[in-house]
UniProtKB/TrEMBL annotation, chains A, B:
GO terms for cellular component: cytoplasm
Family, as annotated: Belongs to the DegT/DnrJ/EryC1 family.
Taxonomic placement: Bacteria, Pseudomonadati, Pseudomonadota, Gammaproteobacteria, Alteromonadales
Name this polypeptide is given: Kynureninase
SUPFAM superfamilies: PLP-dependent transferases
Enzyme class: hydrolase
UniProt gene name: kynU
Amino acid sequence: MQLSDLTQRDEQDPLASKRMQFELPQDTIYLDGNSLGALPKASAKRVQEVVSQQWGNDLISSWNKHQWIELPLETAEKIAPLIGAAKDQVIVCDSISVNLFKLLTAALAMQTGRNIVVSEQGNFPTDLYMVQGIEALLGEQRCTLNSVATADIESALTEEVAVLMLTHVNFKTGRIHDMQRLTRLAQDKGILVLWDLAHSAGALPVELDKCNADFAVGCGYKYLNGGPGAPAFLYAASRHHDAIRQPLSGWMGHTSPFAFDEAYQPAPGIKQFLTGTPSVIAMAVLDAALEVFTDIDMYQLREKSVALTDSFLTLKEQQAALDELQLISPVDTSVRGSQLSFTHQNAYAICQALIDHGVVPDFRAPDIIRFGFTPLYLRYQDMHTAIEILVKVMSEKLYLQQQYQVKAAVT
Amino acid sequence: MQLSDLTQRDEQDPLASKRMQFELPQDTIYLDGNSLGALPKASAKRVQEVVSQQWGNDLISSWNKHQWIELPLETAEKIAPLIGAAKDQVIVCDSISVNLFKLLTAALAMQTGRNIVVSEQGNFPTDLYMVQGIEALLGEQRCTLNSVATADIESALTEEVAVLMLTHVNFKTGRIHDMQRLTRLAQDKGILVLWDLAHSAGALPVELDKCNADFAVGCGYKYLNGGPGAPAFLYAASRHHDAIRQPLSGWMGHTSPFAFDEAYQPAPGIKQFLTGTPSVIAMAVLDAALEVFTDIDMYQLREKSVALTDSFLTLKEQQAALDELQLISPVDTSVRGSQLSFTHQNAYAICQALIDHGVVPDFRAPDIIRFGFTPLYLRYQDMHTAIEILVKVMSEKLYLQQQYQVKAAVT
């Protein structure tokens, strides 16, 4: 594979013009959109408008005038098609962690006589931590985490299990779970299924309704490009809306918040999952970011994502200097998300050296270098440049330099 | 009281120059800073910097380079002196509702054998709703809300009570509770005390440490001017940090989030109250807004607040046309926050007519007109203008016009 092959693919890329919708730093190949998506120009514009005009000038009247009150649903309506959710099943609010708490406690309450939450070792820690928090709060007789090896998930699905909670695409390896199959297997045993879409939403097609998923949560700041710490989203299938009751019953989830009744009465439908007053600024930034997706076919996006990871891997394998980097992502593209992860004992320092030379991956303890591939703003030719720099870092052992060894607070 | 008296007070006002630090709309007297504070110029500047430079250009590296990871504590350190809290007891995160959930569940767990949460009828609904959510989740034998009339609070403090949860300044009437006395009375019975400072923080001096408060929550978007839906804050007295365990145990509250351990281990101290990834943009806006307070003496601010409400009330009482407006805030300034509330059967329409004529109060169902007085950006002369317009609206019965009767989504 040559640079010319890649520039040719760029010329033919139907998504090529999407790159123009982002502000991207000069001389940087950003392979960390799976940790923090790049800045959409629409978000930079919207934040100005919301802060200076809406807040600054229209002040409190903006809740009506600029429909701030509708943002959690309006923003969610832009996410719904990306995750295969029909209308009125998605809402934007809080963080993934808080939304997991709402859904897990509510799902456990629906599952009389069952107390086990099955999850996976190697899942993103916050998912496991939230179950542990619920376990400590409710006691083991009402909630017990059973975190099993990937190979043991299916056999763990017994009739004592209340909830199966999995992350669709693993944050370390990029491995994709078979959502349809696992949802069906679990539901056959009466288990409710909760998917974490942190590394899927905006990166690959997700079919929540088609898979008959019960619940899902997802992240606004990764592939949806909603800005650092953007609000998260929550999906609950409509069939559950009447039966469910979540315990974080704040005023924004009340059926009539401005009546100031003293008894909580949940709003009908998905709005019952709101809790406190959401950050309008943060949500508006995410809302604007989602404009990039309005004309996107997620299957076409996925095609480019696969082609990008494949190109990167092919180029990597052509370089003996990169043999030390051990792939831990699946080779089979059908079960690989929009990322490639490699292990190396100097992973941290390699990441730092790469960043210093204009290629931005991230490090995941203890020894993983993670490259994320965002089809919206990456070019095929970037794969070539990134590999060139990676070869330089590895062959010249630049990562052994002292300045790359010092660990920062966030790694 | 004449306009000239008021302009003279403006000339002598040591806080007069603070008004220059805000972007304020032309020809508007904004008496709703207790619902949404005005835009500080520093926030408008900071949001640009965070979005365009930090996010847009420095991307993921900003978590270290611009110390995003430190924001929840750094922003909290600016709030701590305003609420009388020594270092390391305050953190900025989530919403008031979510923070109430953390503190209430944690406090209940500390109070073996006690299950009652005493609160007050007429408290802000979300406070009551969150207890109701916990009651439904844990069962009445672990949590029961006892919401009593204001006059019955003291007699409700028995040895069955686990937590006393009160809002320091009532959102409807502006009545201030005696924090020191109530905290002491409750603690004499072994009760933990949780204060909601939504209408106090930034409006009047609060002395959490001095009053020996156990816990508190507060709002970023009212008197702290942190923007619509700004993150909230949480206070937990250091003496509780070792014993307490909150159930929303997300990765940001882990002692070592980037180690990606699978077992939750709370961070020491106040950081254990973090849950998910916070909105950096929203928090940075609040952080910048707090710069306005760096040289503020809260006792001096309180003096102006009292003088503003007193001027407004004196002017109001000089006008027979305003007799129909019934004061429901205390007359005694020592127990009155930075607001004045009046009832009238046409309260909603009166608010709308006032807004249309350049004076912005807010409506609180069913019949309250609420005027908030923010000493940082209001002038004494504004009291005169506001009363003039109020007289016009009332004497000409402008509120009876059709267009002021139509209720908006947020009222």
